[in-house]
Design a protein that fits this description.
The complex is a heterodimer of chains A (272) and B (245).
Chain A (H helix, E strand, L loop, with lengths): L5 E4 L4 E4 L2 H25 L15 H29 L5 H16 L6 H10 L3 H26 L3 H9 L4 H36 L17 H10 L3 H30 L6
Chain B lengths: L3 E10 L9 E9 L3 E5 L6 H9 L6 E5 L4 E4 L11 H6 L10 H14 L15 H14 L4 E5 L7 H18 L2 E6 L2 H7 L2 E6 L2 E7 L11 H22 L1
Parallel strand pairs in B: 3-7, 3-8, 5-6, 6-7
Antiparallel strand pairs in B: 1-2, 1-4, 8-9
Helix pairs in contact in B: 3-4
The chains are: A mainly alpha (272), B alpha/beta (245).
Amino acid sequence: MTPSFTHYSHRGRRAHRVSLLEKLSLWLLIPVVLIGLSIAAIELSGTNIGGDFSNVPIVYLGAAFLSSFVRLFISYIFSLVIGVTLALFILRSHVFERVLIPVYDVLESVPVLVFFPVIILFFIHYNLLNTAAVFILILTMIWSIVFAAIGGLHVIPEDVMFVPKVFGLKKFQSLCKVILPALFPSLVTGSLLAWAAGWNILIVAEVLHTYVPAGQNVGDVFGIGSVLVQASSSGNQFLFLWSIVVIVLAITLINILVWQRLLKYAERFKFD
Amino acid sequence: MSNPILTFSNVGFKYHNGMADVLHDISFSLEKNSFTILVGPSGCGKSTLIKLVAGLTAATSGSLDAPKKMAMVFQNGALLPWYSALDNVLLAFEKDAQLSAEEKKKRALDSLALMNIKDLADSYPRDLSGGQRQRVGIARALAAEPELLLLDEPFSALDAETTEALHRELLDIWKSRGITILMISHSLEEAVTLGERILVMHEGRIVHEHVVKLDYPRDPTSETFGKYIASIRKELKEKRGSMSK
């Protein structure tokens, strides 16, 4: 029987007993981090990122991380909804599948940073800095979800796909009761990869001033990625190192508390 | 035939990618309350034929007339792993907006009880044996109260003992409920154990029809049964011989 308190290894596709560190992270570190983030977010929510970074308090990092997390979360929700919709198009017919998959392949392989300056200029024109960052994050995160969902659709047994038809389920019922649950394991894997890609591109997405022509007074969007870069460029090594610590710690905790649990939970949605 | 519930008239099927025809000129009908078995080697078109009956794919030529109230039991149960046995059976009532949730649950439990697995209502497919899963699959199909029950090799992955028990239960259900059954099997012995009529398929055609002349219950271990199977095999061999000439 699988232990109730386990660590899921995706590569090995098996569960292990959790370590003491993981138990500590669950019961001790998480409340501490959440309280810290909340205090930081409340105290520093009005801070302008464009200022002097040589002497910023460490508590600033909590708010910065929270800001980045919310930005990634919004991007993820958009990526998930659009990505699953794009993947579901292939169910319409074999012709759709034959046409769309190569199109998605090409779109995925286009480096998102090539379009970054153009996208930034477009959004800055309308003074939508956060939207620019979210847009870039969506373009980065969406493909892991699209291809995971397409892969997931292909592993649904043919007989299971026939069940809604045989029992007269409407398309929406079929989507909610059969297709989306069947996709759940693939979407968890795809989401994990999407978030990893999102964290990777976060610095680029938040440090907007790099892509703006000289003369325009455009600051970066507030987040842990932009704080990291600004701390480095302003010579605040203390803040720079603490930024890295916060990112590593937070991503580790998210992995343990969210992804490990979702990967384990997804096992019950898998077909034999 | 006096009272056909299903009629195939010169039905053909081929895929649109230009491959050879899967079904050629299929014509047959099923009388109400009959038990018919389709047998034939792998790839002969049995599953395609049953998909046409279920409306899962459309015939490319000819016409077929099938009842609306139909349900299907799949080879491996086709249960949804995220639902309990009860919830899997409840899928049969999804389209029925007029029934209350309580009535649906009651009927689903009755259906599980009919297959002797009411106590497994809250179990998930991963916790069930192959035979129990197939019972849930049959319970789901029966819950839909079909006029025509389609079974696509439902016992092919089960052990002999479970298969024998399910054979008995399926025959009881057929007799007590008065439904029409069309079942696919690759085993002539299974076809003779269960069916009133056997349709033999080969390379997309129905090449032979046999009405089983043994009384129920049929004992596959008996000498009479063995001799009967041997006589059908001889009949089929002669048929193949005459077809090749």
